[in-house]
């Protein structure tokens, strides 16, 4: 499919499922401009836990592109032992209004209370199953209409990391997961927002990168590819995009559940 109807197809560029761009903004900006200049790009999709990634570090570069869509992760665990060097949720949420102003439309922002976790250490439980509800309520009050969530995926390297540091993952029964999801969905639906499951077994397949949505939101009405992305998980419905990022890059956030880095 050709965006805009003529010429070479424009691309959706993702920064990044693999790397927190906040810590590599200069390198990512240089790579983005060199390989995918504005005239070749339909939309830049930014994944980050730090609004400053868009509002400060990449603002000048992103302003050159016709459309920017942001996945802002706010788990509610920022500033705790689980996410020691991520800002507290209230500080991140406070930056949603200027972020929406930069994006030009609240529909270009999705808030991710992702992943949903319950961990135990020395008898103390750390969980965002309840705080995620508060995050959704606060974000909907600022006009956010779309959310994503999933339950933590305990890859072998994540399990080894937790065990090495004295942490234990607390498993949830299917019934407990269902109750958690109902609460989150209800919090979103109360203002007409929607909660999407990101590769959640038993939930409808959803698209975190949705070519149809990005086409509908494009300020010039240009369309982009809507065919399914290759190489993603079976439950992932994302459409085609090019990700510029790197697994196993050092990320100072220190999130215990991170699967992108071998060590945290």
Structural notes for this entry:
It is a single chain. The protein has 264 residues and is an alpha/beta fold. It has one domain (11-243): Alpha-Beta Horseshoe (pyruvate-formate lyase- activating enzyme), CATH 3.80.30.10. It contains nine helices and ten strands. It has helices at 25-35, 52-57, 59-62, 89-93, 96-103, 131-140, 156-164, 174-189, 211-217, and strands at residues 11-15, 41-48, 68-73, 109-112, 118-121, 124-127, 146-149, 168-169, 194-197, 242-243. A seven-stranded parallel β-sheet has the order 9-7-4-3-2-1-10. A three-stranded antiparallel β-sheet has the order 6-5-8, covered by helices on one side. Helix 6 runs parallel beside helix 8 (174-189). The radius of gyration is 18 Å and the shape is globular. The model is unreliable at 1-5 (pLDDT under 50).
């Amino acid at each position: 499919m050709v965006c805009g109807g003529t010429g070479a197809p424009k691309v959706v560029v993702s920064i990044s499922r693999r790397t927190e761009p906040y810590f590599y903004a200069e390198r990512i900006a240089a790579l983005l401009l060199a390989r995918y200049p504005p005239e070749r790009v339909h939309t830049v999709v930014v994944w980050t836990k730090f609004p400053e990634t868009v509002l400060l570090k990449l603002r000048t570069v992103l302003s050159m592109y016709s459309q920017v869509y942001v996945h802002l992760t706010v788990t509610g665990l920022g500033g705790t032992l689980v996410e020691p060097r991520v800002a507290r949720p209230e500080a991140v949420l406070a930056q949603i209004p200027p972020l929406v102003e930069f994006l030009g439309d609240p529909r270009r922002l999705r808030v991710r209370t992702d992943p949903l976790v319950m961990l135990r250490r020395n008898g103390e439980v750390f969980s965002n199953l309840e705080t995620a509800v508060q995050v959704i309520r606060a974000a909907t009050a600022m006009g956010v209409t779309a959310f994503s969530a999933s339950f933590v995926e305990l890859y072998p390297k994540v399990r080894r990391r937790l065990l090495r540091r004295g942490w234990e993952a607390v498993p949830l029964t299917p019934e407990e997961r269902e109750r958690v999801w109902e609460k989150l969905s209800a919090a979103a639906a109360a203002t007409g927002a929607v909660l999407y499951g990101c590769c959640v077994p038993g939930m409808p397949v959803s698209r975190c990168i949705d070519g149809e949505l990005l086409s509908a939101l494009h300020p010039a009405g240009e369309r982009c590819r809507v065919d399914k992305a290759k190489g993603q998980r079976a439950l992932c419905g994302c459409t085609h995009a090019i990700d510029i990022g790197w697994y196993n890059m050092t990320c100072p956030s220190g999130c215990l559940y991170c699967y992108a880095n071998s060590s945290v």
